[in-house]
Design brief:
two-stranded antiparallel ribbon; 7 helices; mainly alpha; 74% helix; SPX_dom
């Protein structure tokens, strides 16, 4: 499956406008690698790296803004849930974290793939350097923070309600505490 379709099929629809616009970036890349299209835009081959990376930077900033807002929101919820007796709220926040982790991973993969495609089409190595030095460390930091939130939430849950993976054998029921918490919603 092509990555553009994979991205479209695996993204959260409500966050659609916050994802990397892979299709547009790919379209721009193909246009920048076509000499006739470059001339029609009044550009030279030497301009394509600048134009492409400027557009990618705008996409990156869009993703960053959304993730910063999510980090603040989830961070505030994590602080408030420290002593919360509400198992469902803890697990809902954990689901938000998991959604954010998936968002980060899809965008990181998209950035890596479009930069790799740039290097291949433009016969350059700037995409690899850009990804390695700027994009990857940033996404790794976001992933680390969200993973920290998830671990913290699971620790809150475990300290108050037991291990989410434990099996409860009370009155002929054999459901995990985790699934019971999710049903409380």
């Amino acid at each position: 499956m092509k990555f553009g379709k994979y991205l479209k099929n695996n993204r959260e629809e409500e966050w659609q406008e916050h994802y990397l616009d892979y299709k547009e970036m790919k379209k721009l890349l193909l246009e920048l690698c076509d000499d006739k299209a470059l001339q029609a835009r009044g550009l030279h081959r030497s301009d394509r790296g600048t134009v492409f990376l400027r557009s990618l930077w705008q996409e990156f900033q869009k993703i960053e803004k959304f993730m910063s807002d999510r980090e603040k929101s989830i961070g505030n919820k994590v602080k408030l849930l420290g002593n919360s007796p509400d198992a469902a709220q803890i697990m809902n926040t954990c689901k938000e974290v998991e959604g954010s982790l998936a968002f980060i991973q899809l965008n990181q993969d998209g950035m890596r793939k479009i930069l790799k495609k740039y290097d291949k089409k433009a016969t350059a190595t700037i995409g690899f350097e850009y990804y390695r030095n700027m994009t990857a460390p940033h996404f790794q930091g976001k992933t680390a923070l969200m993973t920290h939130y998830k671990v913290t939430l699971l620790n809150y849950y475990s300290s108050q309600f037991g291990d989410p993976n434990d099996i409860s054998n009370q009155s002929d029921q054999s459901e995990s505490v985790f699934s019971l918490a999710l049903e409380e919603q």
